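Quick look at the format.
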Amino acid sequence: MKIEPLLIDLEGDDGSGKTTVIARLAKEPEFADDVFTREPGGTILGERLRAVLKDKTVRRSAWAETFTFMAARSELIDEVVLPALLAGRRAFLDRYFTSTLAYQWGAQMGHEDPTEFMRLPKIAGMPFPGLVLWYDLDPAIAMTRRPQQESAHDHFDARELDFHQRVCDSYRRLFTTYEPWKTVVRRIDAAQPPDAVYADTLVAIRDYLRTHA
């Protein structure tokens, strides 16, 4: 699977702060020409599928959820990300297929080895990110950071602590055990105050860009 140096992926459990970080990055003058996306979403199809995926009243199997995420992702890659990369622009992703590995493949289905799942993004022509920023945070702390009113209606935020612990375990296993994640991941201590998290993010990105992209 080809590694794309212009692709930067932000990963972590809900409440880890990555969405806040990517919103701040989008306002930085040095990234003014770059593309910023969120998953699921970013396209007409993606936003409609996002509403379904976030709705906790909509019942779905783990496989149905996996393929719904992949459908939204495929459209985002084809419609937004690949054109940006072809034009020489960087793309910052608020989640990517690693989220599906952590949430659906790992936490819901109980799989540890990513090999079988990775056939899906490979066949779909999805590039592997050159840099993955991992916002590592104790899930018990992350739960306290989520807006309670919104979380009550969000399919993922409303899941029990044990589920989010499995998500975090999946991330840690992927990022410390399997290639190419081990070589492209930079861990960010998300337990720090927001400004410190953001400062560490900028350091990681600038260090990466000095030798890549």
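Next, a different chain entirely:
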Amino acid sequence: MFELFKDYQNRMSQFSANVKLYLLALAFNSIGVGMFQVLYNLYLKELQYDEAFVGQTISLKALAAVLVLIPAGIFSDKLGRRKAMITGALTSGVVYVLLSIFQSGNIILTFIFLNGLFNAFFMVAQSPFMMENTSPRERMHLFSINSALTMGAWMLGNILGGWLPDVLHTWFPLLTAMKITLFICSIIILLAAIPLFKIREPRAREERRFADILQVLTEKQELLTIGKFLLPSALVGFGAGLFVPYTNLYLANEFSMSSSLIGFILALSQVTTAVSTLLVPLAVKYLGKVKSILAFQLVSLPFLLVMATTSNLIFATAALLLRTTFMNSANPLTSNLMMEEVGENVKGIANSFSQMAFQLGWAVMGPISGLIITAYGYSYIFYLAMLFYLGSALSYYFFFRKIDERTSPGSLNI
């Protein structure tokens, strides 16, 4: 274990200035998003909005991402990853500020939609940026660090998002305390743009022609390769869209948890995921990428079953932590696999298609899940999510298992 972390330390010291600046920006963005993630549904609940309205916000944000991800991917491929990420950080940060101010349902839905639009620019440029700024030897480690840092920063954001309202509630009404916390999270997200401005992209990237991107994208083999990633991405999106946005409400309604305790539980899940993610290169070394994806996703299924059936707080919390840990540990693997398999000129668009498929699941399932919870409670959403996750795991295996066969996992140089 010590040797593994020593290896990470050595690889990180060799990362380029661009990569280090990107990781700093990612930390700021993820802290802010983590604060918003743990608090906003509770804030809507304090405003007397029900789960059906929460479902509308989830659906609209995901629908906005579906609509803009392809244009955002083209923007990223043509004008550069740096400009795409700066656009996303600045515009989504401004929208988060507005969401912390306004309380009207229609205005909230409008800004949630805009947030989904603008956040897509940051999201879609990340994986191609990492591919373009690393060597093959560094890549798997950076994708793992990227995922671990995201989880770690989310952890800090979850803690702050749950803890600050309770602290501020000493001096302010709870609703005001929540508003102040949401405003702070907006400022942190805006800070992510500062290191991004210092990134230097190659001039060749800035001059890439739109016609060249479209020409590569029309090649039959390229489309087939991209298409193979869409089904499992969509299935994960459908499964996650059923319950992930409602996790804080699940803990609050089923177990009467306070916002600070919910923030702590969600933060702890990010810690366990971050640690697990750092072990991903070791799993790849012995299993291969595709078998590792299969293993991580399948192992998460029993914990969904526990969440569906238990009324015990300790069991539910443990299941939540372990499900989050194993399922999210597959994320750097799926991202890295796609970036290695698609063509150089269409990585941004390919990532857009994959993210679009994932967000489509959230857009469709967000409101449906809200209706299911309102009518029948939380159990059924976990059962349905198990089916979607199983389909995703099997899809990755059947589409890409030959990759492991040709790379001989035990001899991988990672």
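The domain at 17-192+219-406 is CATH 1.20.1250.20 (Growth Hormone; Chain: A;).

See the schema section for token definitions.
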